Amino acid sequence: MATTTTAAASLTTLSPAAGKRFVLSSPCLSFSSHRLIIAGLCHRHHTVAASRTARRRAASASPVVATITVGDKLPDATLSYFDPADGELRTVTVAELTAGKKVILFAVPGAFTPTCSQKHLPGFVEKAGELKAKGVDKVACVSVNDAFVMKAWKELLGLADGSGVLLLSDDNLELTRALGVDMDLSDKPIGFGVRSRRYALLADDGVVKALNLEEGGAFTTSSAEEMLRLACSGPGACNAERAIAYGFCGLHAVDQVRC
């Protein structure tokens, strides 16, 4: 069996080469009659790989946390949309959208994606009337897609102008980053880049009363059904424990209305 020797000479020293193969000796090289191993580089490669794996595991174990939280005032940002009334491209600020109103904002990672197209947006369209009956003045869907993509998505789904859900573009990620819900998917093979996490929030006069933020690609707590359960209609009509946890009942502050 061939024996392995570790070279200890400097980089300028050559092994005897009279009629034989020779290698450039180095403290970080080891060689045998069958192979040459760059020990230092191999060690460094495994160390970096292990470090990356540890970081990924730590990130996956961490809870998803947004910058915004219940009780905070929504940050202002400018969003664009096609006005259902006349089809014109317009802009609206978060402050204008929420001033003096009870508004549900829900975000999707991307227009035309399966869960967003088959469940998330259609769910809010279906429940828009019930949410309005519970006191919600406006329901809006936010995505980082541009306004033209959002318009095409709406048309593909066959949503009427009176669907009850306003589709808003946050194509500069102004609101998404201010809320702290942006996620970088640049390492994915689908070419998404930076997107918004899926969430649903309820704001009363611009103050967040409820926030359901999903982890990863999950769709469990940001549905229209869940927001409808949170939006109780008045005294005695909602679960007191849930109302206290989320800070509102009948879309009013808990200290104003007893459930």
Automatic annotation (TrEMBL):
- Give yes or no: UniProt keyword Oxidoreductase: yes
* Biological-process GO terms, alphabetical: cellular response to oxidative stress
Q: Could you tell me the gene encoding this protein?
A: PRXIIE-2
Q: Which residues are in coiled coils?
A: none
> Which PANTHER family does the UniProt entry name for this protein?
PEROXIREDOXIN (PTHR10430), PEROXIREDOXIN-5, MITOCHONDRIAL (PTHR10430:SF16)
Q: Which reaction does it catalyse?
A: [glutaredoxin]-dithiol + a hydroperoxide = [glutaredoxin]-disulfide + an alcohol + H2O
Write out the function statement from the record: Thiol-specific peroxidase that catalyzes the reduction of hydrogen peroxide and organic hydroperoxides to water and alcohols, respectively. Plays a role in cell protection against oxidative stress by detoxifying peroxides.
Q: Which residues form the Thioredoxin domain?
A: 68-233
- Specify the domain of life of the species encoding this protein: Eukaryota
Indicate the family of this protein.
Belongs to the peroxiredoxin family. Prx5 subfamily.
Name this polypeptide is given: Glutaredoxin-dependent peroxiredoxin
Query: EC number(s)?
Result: 1.11.1.25
Q: Which UniProt keywords apply?
A: Antioxidant, Oxidoreductase, Peroxidase, Redox-active center
- Cite the active-site annotation: 116 (cysteine sulfenic acid (-soh) intermediate)
Q: Which Pfam families match?
A: Redoxin
GO terms (molecular function) for this protein are: thioredoxin peroxidase activity
